Amino acid sequence: MVGGRRKRTTGTPPASTERVEVLHIWFWAWLVIAAVCALYELYAGEMLSLPWALGALSAAALEFLGVPLAWQWVAFFAVSFVFLVAMRRWWLANAEADSSLRSEPDGT
Length: 108
Description:
This protein is mainly α.
């Protein structure tokens, strides 16, 4: 035993340790992506990066559950796409409201 730990004779890490290290990397990466998108959304307010933040949060949840990385990417793009399509109606309504405000003649 070295420093309270048992010294291993093989050079490969156990599978559980490897999974924990990878979990930390991708879980935190997805959360950072979600945070960056959410902060940009707060700054810009155009509702363009919100779907990407939600997609990243869904991928982080899948990472936490142990789903393979390829499926995390699929979920990231699928959830983002669904929310982009769902928000299209909101964008079109805001675009019409903005154009009607600009086209009204000034009363002066």
